[in-house]
Amino acid sequence: MSEQPLLQLENAGKTFHLKPMFGAAKEVVAMRNISLSVEQGRALAVVGESGSGKSTLGRAVTRLFSLTEGRVLFKGRDISQMKSRSESLAYNRAVQMVFQDPFAALNPAHTIRHHLERPLKLHHKLSGWALAEAVKGVLADVELDPDMALSKYPHELSGGQRQRVNLARALAVGAELVVADEPTSMLDVSIRKSVLGLMKRMKTDRGITFLYITHDIATAHYLAEDTAVMFAGQVVEWGPSERVIANPQHPYTKVLLSAVPDPAQRFVASEDGGRAFAKGVEEVRALARKPAGLPVEVEPGHFVRHRLTQLDAA
Ligand SMILES: Nc1ncnc2c1ncn2[C@@H]1O[C@H](COP(=O)(O)OP(=O)(O)O)[C@@H](O)[C@H]1O
Ligand SMILES: [Mg+2]
Q: Residue 134: which domain range?
């Protein structure tokens, strides 16, 4: 393990300025004052309900837009300063995104062979026998049978197989960091764990680093050594995944652990006397929406901001 984290966010913030055709201009603070880091070969889970700013964080890391505050460092280098074409290309190769919708990054008109050959030709200058072997190699790495998969089109595969192809493609490109934004939430429950297991093996066997974005805090520890809980654009609690789950401090983390939310929904009141719970959630939201205070270390490496003890009993 290297001294320097592979990826670091330093006081990262993003405010969207919306100028609707009618009505007043509006600001959305999607992300505020985020400082996190991941070392090479490890995984950091970013968990939170819908709208908490997780995808904004992932997109900022993949440079889909620039930050309005702070910096993102990759191997110590500020990614907004990567201006030369060669440095930009190298970064775009090293950091790959896997999306919730396994179709999102696949071209329906091309076979799986095409999807995997392209990056291997382009980035690794492979051809002929070496190319064929490399294609088989990345498929083997994601546990797909080449004879089954190569001549298929994306729609001919299952969701889980498509997500495996996306991960194979990240390997073919030469990814060092995979930003996986809800990679299993559109998949059948029965195969989620196998895709998570695959990512875990990519991490341990190949040293791939993961930023694992999920609404499901219960799955975080399976892949990620560390977990950061995001709420209303801020990280309210972070630390070793096992500790955050076993000993949650922030009321919002407790809410996340007490219900597995729908990825597309905020928490809702349930029919059966769930009102008090829903009220508690609203209270938690109102409190957590204020700028968070200084971090408090509750046990080694486990931090919380705004320890809202008055809500702990709720
Ligand atoms: N391109 C954008 N323009 C304006 N607002 C945005 C944009 N992207 C995200 N947001 C807002 O930022 C907040 C966080 O969104 P997002 O990062 O997608 O959350 P999550 O991935 O946790 O569901 C939301 O309020 C969302 O509406
Ligand atoms: Mg999202």
A: 7-312
Give 171-227 pLDDT, tens digit per residue.
999 999 999 999 999 999 889 999 999 999 999 999 999 999 999 998 999 999 999
φ, ψ of residue 203 in degrees (nearest 5)? -70, -50
Query: Which of 50, 54, 56 for mutating ligand 1's site (highest number of atoms within 8 Å of CB)?
Result: 56
Identify which ligand lies nearest to the alpha carbon of 13.
Answer: 1
Bridge partner list, 281: none
The tally of domains found in the chain comes to 1
Q: Which residues of the chain have pLDDT under 50?
A: 1, 269-274, 307-314
- 2 in a structural domain: no
Residue 279 lies inside a defined structural domain of this protein:
yes
Ligand 1: which residue has its CA nearest to atom 2?
16
* Strands annotated E in 187-313: 209-214, 226-231, 234-240, 295-299, 302-305
CATH of the domain at 210: 3.40.50.300
CA of 267 from ligand 1 middle (Å) equals: 17
Atom of ligand 1 nearest to the CA of 181: 21
